[in-house]
Amino acid sequence: MSDLEALPTPALLLDLDRAERNIERMAGRARELGVALRPHVKTHKCLELGRLQLDAGAAGITVSTLDEARAFAAAGFDDLTWAFPVILSRVDECRELAERVTLRLVVDSDVAVDALERTGAAFRVSLKVDCGYHRAGVDPGDPAAVRLVERIAASPTLRFDGLLSHSGHAYKCETTEEIRRVAAAECAVMSGLADRLRGAGIEVPTVSVGSTPACTLADEMPGVTEIRPGNYVFFDYMQVVYGTCSAADTALSVLGSVVSSRPDLGHSVVDAGALALSRDPGPSSAPRPTMGETFESYPAAELSPDLRLVSLSQEHGILSRPLPVGTRVRILPNHSCLTAACFDEYRVVRGDRLLGRWRIHRQRS
Ligand SMILES: Cc1ncc(COP(=O)(O)O)c(C=O)c1O
């Protein structure tokens, strides 16, 4: 009997064979591209997975919160980039952490530089650059970008670490060709700015870029020294639609069971709602709207042609057809990073054997 048959649901399943393959493949890509790999651990928030990434050759890790940073630092991870614009009310926490590990910070404003300088600490600071995603970051064509770097480089306390961008707009592309163009444009913008700074006599140790689609599909990354993909450890339905991976590469799924069946309404209810899957609507280029796909056969990586989540409330998921109560379904989430952040632990599996539980460090303070 499969270990999964008796597992209480909803359960977050981590397919270790697939995750290990994904980790090895991205490490191989980084070697081919001639860049360092600094995976974003916000995807998994898991020490064991972080160690597998370091064992595969990662130069350090990227975090999205100081809570993640502290959890990984306490476990011996000693080179961390907090790839988020510095939160002014947490500068003292940064100083405390920077006394214990190499902590790399990111800024895009004079106000943040002021706050860091006031601490007197020798922070390593990168400039966040907007390469077309238009979320955070400075406009690379704005002379203010160079002025901000000049200020950091001339600071009596801070150390200029380099440039950092995130090609999140790769998630707006409709084709793999478009993703390749986004990746190439990100590299061109970043290496162009790095060259201008070098021309002005400023040393630029790091040029850090990336997103899973861009890092998976880019043909080359001239001028870049480091990539920071995160999602690639698990992939998800979104990445399948983008053509970044196949269903056979997806390493994270939610095991749910049908708790109510309504043939009169043409649906059934599963115990995986928004607090198990998140409410990420997935890509607009998906063949049809979905809140989560299901596997027809997990070992064959075959997705069901007609069974999917059509809506989610807090704990209820509505499946697209009636199924007998007790039926178990393996759900492929739209967005694995948000799904993992819904759970406290992974149930780690190889095939249908349960290996154990790995903690998800999703605490927030
Ligand atoms: C700043 C930053 N860097 C890297 C990443 C990793 O991107 P992905 O999850 O596409 O691999 C993210 C993801 O949101 C990010 O915000």
Please tally the β strands and state the result: 17
The CATH topology assignment of the largest domain is TIM Barrel
Radius of gyration: 22 Å
Mean pLDDT: 97
CATH superfamily of the largest domain: Alanine racemase
Q: Share of helix among residues?
A: 25-40%
**Unreliable spans:** none
Main sheet: strand order: 2-9-8-7-6-5-4-3
What small-molecule ligands were found? pyridoxal-5'-phosphate
End-to-end Cα distance, whole Å, is 42 Å
Q: Which CATH-level-2 architecture of the largest domain? A: Alpha-Beta Barrel
Percentage of residues in DSSP E strands: 25-35%
Descriptive report:
The protein has eleven helices and 17 strands. The longest helix has 24 residues, at 176-199. The protein has helices spanning 16-33, 47-55, 66-74, 91-98, 110-119, 143-153, 176-199, 212-217, 237-242, 274-277, 336-340; strands at 11-15, 36-37, 61-63, 79-85, 102-107, 124-128, 159-164, 206-209, 226-227, 252-262, 267-270, 293-297, 302-312, 317-319, 328-332, 345-350, 353-359. The protein has two domains: 3-13 and 243-359, D-serine dehydratase-like domain (Lyase, Ornithine Decarboxylase, Chain A, domain 1, Beta Barrel), CATH 2.40.37; 17-232, Alanine racemase (TIM Barrel), CATH 3.20.20.10. Strands 2-9-8-7-6-5-4-3 form an eight-stranded parallel β-sheet, covered by helices on one side. Strands 10-11-14-13-12-15 form a six-stranded antiparallel β-barrel. The mean pLDDT is 97. Helix content is 30%, strand content 25%. It is of the alpha/beta class and 365 residues long. The structure holds pyridoxal-5'-phosphate. Residues 40, 43, 83, 166, 168, 210-212, 228-231 line the site of pyridoxal-5'-phosphate.
